[in-house]
Amino acid sequence: MPEFHRLRVAEVVEETADARSVVFDVGTDRLPYRPGQFLTLRIPSDRCGSVARAYSLSSSPVTDGRLAVTVKRTAEGYASNWICDNVAAGSEIDVLEPAGVFTPKSLEADLLLFAAGSGITPIMSILKSALATGSGRVALVYANRDERSVIFARELTELAAAHPGRLLVLHWLESVQGLPTQEAMQSLAAAFPDHDAFLCGPKPFMDTARKALREAGFPKSSIHLERFASLAGNPFDTATPADAVTPAESEAEEAQPEDSVVEVTIDGEAHTFTWPADKRLLDLLKENGIQAPSSCAEGICAACECRVTEGEVTMVNNQVLEQEDLDEGYRLACQSLPKTPKVKVDYD
């Protein structure tokens, strides 16, 4: 079962009229994390006891002494409204340990960052960390409705002034320039070849930015997206029905396919295993001591994305991979079951 921590809120910072940064009275010595990761918070609910919501850490493990998440109020968002209306200094909130793989492999790399609205939160963590410890160049394209909607406006201005040779901040305001177009973002991206690109924001924005990057010649391996969807269950719940049957178990009972053999290449090393027909690939790797990337294990975050280079698999659930990804062989390890006698998978 996942472990959770009860954290006390040190302060709440009003970033804009509808965005708040919740600063916890805890540092990286207690909860270490990587730039771009997120926290899952337990939010009380009169209807069901509690709900779980993931919010990106906007603090940097390098420059900030305390962990902070930034939450933007949305019209239909129960959790975001509860946080903005109720959380104050002294409040206590249960959180799971930091998670997520939306983080640079190296803070020395040149980075091209695309953010829209509250998508700036993990981007801010990455940006501050890279400027503090790396030597690469950082370019940020940040889209918002208008000037009043810009989260971290003053901090971004101060960082750009402090790092004039390394940080370039380009604001895109819908009130002035309209919605960002693929052509405009492609033109911007073309000015920063060989950069690692990180994208976070509403799905239409990320879809447009992703297409722009691919058209600008960026390989898929250098394009990183942070995508959240509602969790199927509440990870803070401590018990599950004893007679619960997962979709994978149900399918295996009906079809009863034979086991397969899978060869997995990760970190430059190939591993071969017998792959039981009713076992998901991520579970198989963990059982065999392979530290494969993962996060939600529900098929909604793409952290466990890998590429099938030979054979076929079937996915129980997929809420994040687009048809373009599927056509290129990308699959979610946490949802993949073997479909052919032999399968080859590449994480590199």
Give an overview of the whole structure:
The protein has 348 residues and is of the alpha/beta class. The protein has 3 domains: 4-96, Translation factors (Elongation Factor Tu (Ef-tu), domain 3, Beta Barrel), CATH 2.40.30.10; 111-226, 3-Layer(aba) Sandwich (Rossmann fold), CATH 3.40.50; 255-346, Roll (Ubiquitin-like (UB roll)), CATH 3.10.20.30. Helices cover 23% and strands 31% of the residues. Helix 2 (120-133) links the parallel strand 7 (111-116) and strand 8. Helix 5 packs across helix 6. Residues 260-348 form the 2Fe-2S ferredoxin-type domain. One of its GO terms (molecular function) is flavin adenine dinucleotide binding.
Largest sheet: 5 strands, parallel
**Widest β-sheet, arrangement of strands:** 9-8-7-10-11
CATH architecture of the largest domain: 3-Layer(aba) Sandwich
Structural class of the secondary structure composition? Answer: alpha/beta
User: Cα-atom Rg, whole angstroms?
Assistant: 21 Å
Mean of pLDDT: 89
The share of residues in extended strands comes to 25-35%
Distance between the termini: 29 Å
Share of helical residues:
10-25%
> What is the CATH topology assignment of the largest domain?
Rossmann fold
Write the element-wise H/E pattern from the N-terminal end onward: EEEEEHEEHEHEHHEHEHEEHEEHEEE
Per CATH, the superfamily of the largest domain is Nucleotide-binding domain of ferredoxin-NADP reductase (FNR) module
| Uncertain residue ranges | 238-255
> How many strand segments?
18
Counting H and I runs of at least 4 residues, what is the number of helices?
9
Q: Specify the overall morphology.
A: globular
Query: What would CATH call the class of the largest domain?
Result: Alpha Beta
